[in-house]
Amino acid sequence: MLRLALYIPAGIMRTLQRMGGMILLVMLILPSQGTAQPLPGNISIDEGGELWIEGTAGPVDFSCEAEELSGRGNIENTADPASTVQGGGQVAISVSLPVASLNCGKRKMNRDMYEALKQDQFPVIRYRLLNASLVEEPGESVAKGDDWMTIRTRGVMEIAGVRDTTTFLVQGRIHDNNKFHVKGRKEVHMDTYDIEPPSTMFGLIRAKKTLMVFFDVTVTLTGRNDQAATMILIPVKNPGNDIDQKAEGSRPSEIFNVLP
Q1: Which of 187, 195, 150, 184 is CA-nearest to residue 166?
Q2: 124 pLDDT exceeds 80?
Q3: Could you tell me which InterPro entries the record lists for this protein (predicted)?
Q4: Domains located in the chain, CATH noted
Q5: How far apart are CA 45 and CA 91, in angstroms?
Q6: Are strands 69-75 and 2-6 parallel, antiparallel or unpaired?
């Protein structure tokens, strides 16, 4: 099960949720309810949402799916539909992924992956969003309907006890008045997090040092209430703490293209 706690005001909303094994990252944008007064509400991720990791070990490609993910955050919204990601409102999201929730399809492969990620010492992968902004050409308006919008995100990722400030892009679009679809991918290099690639056959075959994290999720607004925050359960396809920014001088990851 996936758990998410969010403050959701009225008006057009945008938020991010984690993903990732690394991480799951969700940007939510919903239309105005006709009032500028912010009201908290609930959201849920539709069943069938996915987050998975792909890599290569010798001649073999492998894939690991995330079976458990949790996140919490809050959004400060205004009457301006684009304000949240354009600087008019604040977005705060923290995401946690237990290393043991990664399922690579084989017990031996799972064990090698957990060992490489130093599960015994650092059992949770974490991500905290620092800021998000709409990638928009001059004269363009916020995309609606079937149009995809591109959003640049910047945050701190912690894997195997190492923190790195990273930037990447996501794509999202509004399906109707209460659904938002978001997808993307992010390349992660093991050297950034001091991870030794897992190996097989007495070390003769070693995985490549790059992993690609994919996510594809649809988010639905399920209602509003007067509570300051609500914890809800969100189903995923298969069965948090704050972190600090990495010390100055660390190398941030590059921006990678979103899925076509």
Answers
A1: 187
A2: yes
A3: TTHA0802/YceI-like_sf
A4: 2-234 (2.40.128.110)
A5: 18
A6: parallel
